Structures are given as C-alpha cells and as structure tokens.
Amino acid sequence: MQFFLARRAGRVVGRISAQVDHAHIERYADSTGFFGCLVAEDDPAIFAALFAAAEKWLRTKDMKQATGPFSLSINEEVGLLVDGFDSRSVLMVPYDPP
C-alpha cells in the first residue's frame, strides 16, 4: 500500500491510499487495485490530483483498474460520506465534517 497527501501552500488539504490486495488478485486474476482513506477539501482539483497519484502508483504494480473507496481492505469500512453531514458520526462508517 501507499499513502498520498495533497498539499496546498504547505498545508495538507487531502489524502488517499492505494493498495493491492494479493488475495483478491490470486482469486479473481483481474488486475484490480483499490483506493481508500479518501478525504479532501471540497475542490475537484484536489480529488483529481489524489486519484491521479493513486492510479499512477497502482499502474506501477501492474493494476489495470481501480475500485473503492475501501479503507485498507474490503473487510473494513467502505465508502465515503457525501451527504448527511448534519447527522452524528456512526461507528464503522466513514465520517468527516463538511
């Protein structure tokens, strides 16, 4: 796995992970990598840069496609919050303030 940070003016504005699940590759032989731990300020340019970094790293590991978001595996938290920021966080569900 590899972790990436997006910085703007020296300040961290986003993060993403990229990972290869060798058990998945062994079972499905589909060259799928994974991304997760995704959070960033509300700016499409930040998300684009984060995805580009994760995808580039996955390509160096011979992955042909990427799927996610998974925390670090499909057996952990999956997804990300895109609506419902007015609700309280819930255990085992990704949550970040708006």
Write a compact overview of the structure shown:
The chain is an alpha+beta fold. The chain has helices at residues 22-28, 44-60, and strands spanning 2-8, 11-19, 32-40, 65-67.
Notes on the structure:
The protein is of the alpha+beta class and 98 residues long. 24% of the residues lie in helices and 29% in strands. It has two helices and four strands. Strands 1-2-3-4 form a four-stranded mixed beta sheet, with helices on one face. The mean pLDDT is 90.
End-to-end gap: 27 Å
Helix-strand topology string: EEHEHE
For the largest beta sheet, what order do the strands appear in spatially?
A: 1-2-3-4
> How is the biggest beta sheet arranged?
4 strands, mixed
User: Percent of residues in beta strands?
Assistant: 25-35%
Number of strands: 4
Poorly predicted runs of 5 or more residues = none
* Mean pLDDT over the full residue set: 90
SS-derived structural category: alpha+beta
Which key terms come to mind for this protein?
98 residues, alpha+beta, 4 strands
